[in-house]
């Protein structure tokens, strides 16, 4: 690792991440990359100061015009049709290597001919491909959205495929994602699994009478499936996380299901070590 860091110091490197507004799985990968790349600049669509770890916050962060639009804190997803333009406006003429971590548009940056672009992909743009119906089913969106969204989705699919040709090397976070990269982009990808800090999460012998979900509360995580299942089972379930589905999940969950906001790592580890089982209902995870 030290030899790799010394070698990379001879090059000007930029890291591109979709957005910075919370510490989830993608941001854990970003943290690990920034540890390897201590001098790299960080580019992102938008940044909510104080929402990510100190290692990320202390980096030089360059944001797009999305970061200056109104209501971007809670409604940034509504600007999705503008994301391709925003990511393409970044200028990387001075950089030798670009490393993008992407589940949306970060892999679509424009780079000079002699710049190497490596993309660590968490997923092709899931809400316009295989999970389109999960995000935009008729019971989730209104009459006007049902007529507008398909047109934007078609444009985003075309852009997503076209921009995949700008990547020199793809890395997938799992074999499942590598298959989807081949399916939608017709590109091969090497699989490198996300980092896990085993020192902070030792094996625990404790087993209390609750099950645990730690997740962003978004459609593809399928937390709704777990809530319906535990409603029927009556067993205690603790859900830790936040996201646009939180209110609906809260409303449908029975008394045996407890919802908590994101917690500091020290508290989170206690829930991990004490749970009877960790529940992962989403296919992608």
Characteristic key phrases:
4-stranded parallel beta sheet; Rossmann fold; 285 residues; 7-stranded parallel beta sheet; alpha/beta; 2 domains
Write a concise synopsis of the structure shown:
With 285 residues, this protein is of the alpha/beta class. The chain is built from eleven helices and eleven strands.
General description of the model:
It is a single chain. With 285 residues, this protein is α/β, with parallel strands linked by helices. The chain folds into two domains: 2-191, Rossmann fold; 211-278, Glycogen Phosphorylase B (Rossmann fold). It is 35% helix and 16% strand. The chain is built from eleven helices and eleven strands. It has helices at residues 2-8, 25-36, 54-57, 72-75, 83-88, 132-136, 143-164, 175-185, 223-233, 246-252, 265-274, and strands at residues 13-17, 41-44, 61-63, 97-102, 116-121, 169-172, 189-191, 211-214, 237-240, 257-260, 277-278. The strands form two sheets. The protein has a seven-stranded parallel sheet with strand order 3-2-1-4-5-6-7, sandwiched between helices. Strand 6, helix 8 and strand 7 form a beta-alpha-beta unit. The protein is globular and about 60 Å long. The relative contact order is 0.10.
């Amino acid at each position: 690792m030290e030899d790799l860091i010394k070698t990379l110091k001879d090059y000007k490197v930029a890291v591109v991440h979709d957005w910075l507004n919370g510490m989830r799985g993608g941001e854990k990968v970003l943290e690990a990359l920034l540890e390897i790349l201590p001098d790299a600049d960080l580019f992102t669509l938008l940044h909510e100061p104080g929402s990510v770890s100190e290692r990320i916050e202390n980096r030089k962060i360059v944001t797009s015009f999305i970061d200056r639009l109104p209501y971007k804190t809670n409604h940034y997803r509504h600007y999705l049709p503008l994301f391709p333009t925003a990511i393409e406006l970044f200028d990387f003429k001075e950089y030798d290597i670009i490393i993008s971590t992407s589940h949306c548009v970060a892999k679509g940056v424009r780079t000079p001919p002699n710049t190497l672009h490596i993309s660590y992909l968490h997923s092709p743009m899931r809400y316009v491909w295989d999970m389109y119906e999960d995000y935009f089913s008729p019971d989730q969106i209104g009459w006007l959205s049902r007529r507008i969204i398909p047109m934007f989705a078609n444009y985003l699919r075309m852009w997503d495929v076209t921009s995949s040709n700008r990547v020199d090397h793809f890395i997938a976070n799992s074999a499942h994602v590598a298959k989807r990269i081949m399916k939608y982009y017709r590109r091969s990808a090497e699989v490198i699994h996300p980092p896990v800090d085993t020192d902070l999460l030792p094996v625990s012998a404790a087993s209390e009478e609750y099950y645990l979900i730690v997740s962003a509360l978004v459609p593809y995580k399928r937390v709704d499936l777990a809530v319906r299942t535990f409603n029927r089972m009556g067993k205690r379930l603790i859900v830790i996380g936040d996201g646009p589905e939180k209110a609906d999940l809260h409303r449908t969950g029975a008394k045996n299901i407890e919802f908590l906001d994101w917690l500091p790592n020290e508290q989170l580890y206690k829930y991990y070590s004490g749970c009877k089982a960790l529940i992962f209902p989403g296919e992608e995870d």
